[in-house]
Design a protein that fits this description.
single chain, Dihydrodipicolinate Reductase, domain 2, 2 domains, 8-stranded mixed sheet, 14 strands, 24% strand, globular, binds NADP nicotinamide-adenine-dinucleotide phosphate
């Protein structure tokens, strides 16, 4: 394991970039060193807010800084492929926001690039690194609630934005499945692996992206994972896993910080709670730093294969729903 500080660059200065910048303050062996924006003014503003020494008015200048080790990409979905290739072409390791790319072909291209250039690449599937989700998987794998019969998971909120925003804009590859439904799908794949059968339906906007969608996976022994996502309504964001010997309930934004309620068939309840140092994004960032210092080019917890399986599953769901992104056909 190397003993030095990993220097981060952030590409794009939107909402989630600020969230990761905040979390980086508590990540060990790490320094938030540079930011790149399409606008010099925004780069300055962001850099001043988070005390970042280097600020660039273009992504090209950011990736050309020889001091930067790893770049966090926080742009709209349609740009992930292009931005990640730009980073890797300049020898930078990459943590890219979810979805890693718009479809599985693009994900395969990124993986091939990372492999060829011997660079670290990870999808920023931050929930995977939360102690809450790690514990959920541990409990399921231990068999404490018996044979699993049903997963229900939802992620819905009423988007305040208009049709031009990345939530809806088809050119930016908007839609609930890629943006928030991805978390439901991730959970099912993480806990139960590849489904035997997928069935999906969506309510599409006039642009052709999904405002709301529901998707059900069938596994061995008729176990079902029933999931939905929507930008149309504020609805409980809850995941429940029901087994023959009890259930696990993750409430209040199940994909985020929070507890796990383990409920036995007789109604007894055990609650698991977890410590955090920041906003929860520190866990994924720490994983990146630890992997880089250990000389690894992918994470064992959220590997290239995990991202590829996720992308393939979303391709299948979008196909069934008739969602096609211009310039990103699969
Ligand atoms: N992990 C999570 O919890 C989480 C939460 C929200 C979003 N996300 C993901 O993070 C990514 C960004 O989401 P966000 O909510 O941060 O988006 P956002 O607030 O709209 O920010 C996106 C940034 O991308 C840059 N950009 C480059 N080309 C753009 C274009 N044509 N239109 C708009 N912005 C453009 C802009 O930065 P500059 O102008 O500085 O270049 C902009 O500020 C998405 O992949 C999303 O799915 C993840």
């Amino acid at each position: 394991m190397e003993n030095r500080k990993i220097k981060w660059g952030i590409l794009g200065t939107g909402r989630i970039a600020g969230v990761l910048a905040t979390a980086l303050q508590v990540v060990e062996n790490s320094e938030l060193y540079a930011v790149g924006s399409r606008s010099q003014e925004k780069a300055h503003e962001f850099a001043n807010q988070f005390n970042i020494p280097k600020r660039y008015g273009s992504y090209k200048e950011l990736v050309s800084d020889s001091e930067v080790d790893v770049i966090y990409i926080a742009t709209p979905h349609n740009l992930h492929l292009e931005n990640a290739l730009l980073c890797m072409d300049h020898g930078k390791h990459v943590l890219c926001e979810k979805p890693l790319a718009v479809n599985s072909k693009e994900v395969e291209l990124l993986i091939a690039n990372a492999k060829e250039k011997n660079l670290f690449l990870m999808e920023a599937m931050w929930s995977r690194f939360l102690p809450r989700i790690i514990k959920t998987k541990e409990l399921i794998d231990s068999g404490v609630i018996g044979e699993i019969k049903l997963l229900t998971a939802s992620f819905c909120f009423k988007s305040p934005h208009g049709s031009e925003h990345r939530h809806f804009n088809l050119d930016l590859c908007g839609g609930s499945i890629l943006d928030i439904g991805i978390y439901n799908i991730f959970l099912s794949l993480l806990l139960f692996g590849e489904p035997k059968q997928i069935s999906a339906i969506a309510g599409l906007s006039s642009q052709g992206g999904d405002n709301s969608a529901s998707y059900t996976f069938k596994y061995e022994n008729d176990m079902l994972a029933v999931m939905h996502s929507s930008f149309m309504v504020d609805a409980p964001i809850v995941a429940e896993i029901h087994g023959t010997n009890g259930k696990l309930i993750l409430e209040n934004k199940w994909f985020n910080l929070g507890n796990i309620r383990l409920i036995s068939p007789d109604g007894r309840e055990e609650i698991f709670e977890f410590d955090v140092k920041s906003n929860g994004y520190e866990f994924e960032a720490q994983e990146v730093v630890d992997c880089l210092l250990a000389g690894k080019i992918q994470s064992d917890l959220w590997s290239w294969n995990n991202s590829l399986q996720l992308a393939k599953t979303m391709d299948a769901i979008r196909k069934e729903c008739g969602i096609i992104y211009p310039n990103h056909d699969n």
